[in-house]
Amino acid sequence: MSLLSLGRNAVLDPASVQTEVSAVKDRDVWALIPPKRENIERLVKLARENEDCRRYISMEDWMYIEALLEASWDEIRSPAVFERLEPAVKAILKCLVEKGLAGKVWNLVNPDCNSIKKLVNRAGKCFRFLKLWERRDLSLSRLDRALLKALTIAFEKGYIEKVKSRVMLDALAPIVEKLLKVVGKAFRGVVVLARGVEKFGGELVKAVISLRLPSAYRLAKQAAVKISQIAQEWGNRMARMWAEDPGFINYLLTMMSHGENYLGFPA
User: Fold this and answer.
1) What does the pLDDT read at residue 58?
2) First and final CA of the chain: distance in angstroms?
3) How many domains are contained in the chain?
4) CA–CA dist 250, 79 (Å, integer)
5) Residue 206: exposed, middle, or buried by beta-carbon count in 10 A (0-12, 13-18, 19+)?
6) Do residues 182 and 193 share a domain?
7) What is the distance, to the nearest Å, from the Cα of residue 255 to the centroid of all Cα atoms in its chain?
8) Domain range for residue 243?
């Protein structure tokens, strides 16, 4: 007798994954993801496109899922398959829905030695120029400072070159976000925000561009696309080439990251 057979009509909606963050821990995972083949295939497709999933889902789980999908079935019925697959599905959901702050921060800042140290140094210079209430909101706790100091020492001693631990990345995310906001608030330059970038927050994007972190070029290119589209709407046909012109993108990045735009220049 087959362990897997036909069943329910419900279909997984990828957008709904993001709306069920808290439910992953509190409810039966199969109430969120009806165990139809099309749902599992769609979930796996999302996981393969997600860097966190590729990094943190175990090789054993990936191998089990791939073997499962090679079999012929339409809906999971076997309790044994439910039991074996459930941890993998929960892990995938966790990676997908808990991008939240950590995902937002690490999409903007590489967790490597140079990026973190550059951010810490600039934030230290910018902090004193913030308003009193801004300093109160963005001050780091004693524990935050201790963690940051330990990380800095680890970088300087050469123990690590990049933070890879998921636990450490999650712990550092709110600290890095505060540092980005400090730099962003102290930076008074005009930064063009492309569509979709607003989700990161203007201050965070301003900080990344002003520091010229690795992701700054990508953000500048998105801004170049926006400017190009506006110019084309105004009738400038040549503007369509701006979005792919490295010279224009670098010029835009240089103008948006000019050091004189910092409070208390030089920073």
Assistant:
1) 82
2) 72
3) 3
4) 57
5) buried
6) no
7) 26
8) 188-262
Do 160 and 203 lie in one domain? The reply is: no
Within the chain, what is the greatest distance between any pair of CA atoms? 75
CA distance 103 to 105: 6
pLDDT of 71 reads 92
Task: Give the tens place of pLDDT for each residue, 79-134.
Answer: 999 999 998 888 888 777 655 555 678 888 889 999 999 999 989 988 988 889 88
- Choosing from 80, 98, 116, the residue where a domain stops is 98
pLDDT number for residue 201: 65
Predicted confidence at residue 226, as pLDDT, reads 83
Residue 45 DSSP class: H
DSSP-derived secondary structure letter, 199: G
pLDDT above 70 coverage of the chain, percent: 76
At residue 58, the 3 state secondary structure works out as coil
Q: Are residues 199 and 175 in the same domain?
A: no
Q: How many CA atoms lie within 13 A of 143 on its CB side?
A: 3
- Helix ranges (H only) for the chain are 14-17, 23-26, 29-32, 37-48, 51-56, 59-70, 79-97, 100-108, 113-127, 132-138, 142-156, 166-186, 202-211, 216-233, 246-256
Tokens found for residue 85:
């697959």
Verify that 202 and 228 share a domain, yes or no.
Answer: yes
> Within this chain, do residues 32 and 80 fall inside the same structural domain, yes or no?
yes
Q: Please enumerate in sequence order all residues whose Cβ is within 8 A of that of 47, keeping only pairs 6 or more positions apart, or say none.
A: 53, 54, 57, 92, 95, 96
Q: How much is the mean pLDDT over the chain?
A: 78
